[in-house]
Amino acid sequence: MRAVVLAAGEGARLRDSIICEHHKGLIKLWSLSLAERVIMALKENGINDIIFVLGFGGEAPKTALGNGERFSVHITYLKNPVWEKGNGTSLYCVKGVLEDEDSFIVSMVDHWYQPEIIANCIKTQNNKKNLLCVDKNLNSINDIDDATKVCLDQEKRIIAIGKELKEYNALDCGVFLLTPDVFYALEKSFKNGNFSLTGGIKALVNQSEMWACEIGDKLWQDIDTEDDFSTLILIFLLFRQENLFNRECGLSTLGQLGKNSRPAFATQKMDWYPNTLTGVFPSFYLLSWRNLRLHQTISRYFPFSLL
């Protein structure tokens, strides 16, 4: 199986912040960037042939990631000249490469998720050809207004999707297992003036060809804002209590990345995070955090008392 990573977007809300100077897929948390974490999640599931679709930021991701040799995967790059229209155009760029595949994974470069989410998606596929990974915990995101919402029926068929939904029972996690049918669905969406990936998924929904794969208690985080990135930092810091921390931080893969690999936070403007948010400081930070929904998100992942 092959995978597509959509990495063409501008990431405007992060680009002008203190944590993102160039391409948001290259923001580093400890030793690995967001893009590298997506690569490692795919690799852990036996997916070694990965296509990155680029747009904003030009060749920066290609320069940073190379051909994938240091990750023991093969990475190719496609340029989307019309990336500004919407992320649906980025996926459509790979039509000529993947239209003969049975199915393929699609991931956003700015989403962190546990590798088990992909594993469960592949395991779930069976006759449900097109799958979207969804989270049924509606408190799992900082900005619910900006979230892509999903409505499922009792058979886990998706019957509606969109940010504008008033009635919904799940959230889009940004990980898909799709068939080439999505390219024809995108063409329908483009004709209606909708160039987003969600537009193509809506076309599949209207044909009753889109299903959900629930992630259960697995973790994920969409990185659109500084609050989102702060949430991810806290998740990782609190994982220091468990064996999961080493794997999710990529520490178990550092040998493959080279002996000179080291936490890259010291090279970024937020190099104070690992020093101040350790020990008892996550508790203080949560106590003083101004964003209630962020607090709710962390409470969802760590329901025990932190104080």
Comma- or semicolon-separated keywords:
307 residues, alpha/beta, 2 domains, 9-stranded mixed sheet, two-stranded antiparallel sheet, globular
Task: Using the alpha-carbon principal axes, give the shape.
Answer: globular
Number of structurally distinct domains: 2
Q: What fold name goes in the CATH topology slot of the largest domain? A: Spore Coat Polysaccharide Biosynthesis Protein SpsA, Chain A
User: Going by CATH, what is the homologous superfamily of the largest domain?
Assistant: Spore Coat Polysaccharide Biosynthesis Protein SpsA, Chain A
Reported for the largest beta sheet, the result is: 9 strands, mixed
State Rg. 19 Å
User: What is the typical, i.e. mean, pLDDT?
Assistant: 79
Please identify, by name, the CATH architecture of the largest domain. Answer: Alpha-Beta Complex
- Helix share bin: 25-40%
Low-pLDDT stretches are 241-246, 248-293, 303-307
Structural classification: alpha/beta
Content of β-strand: 15-25%
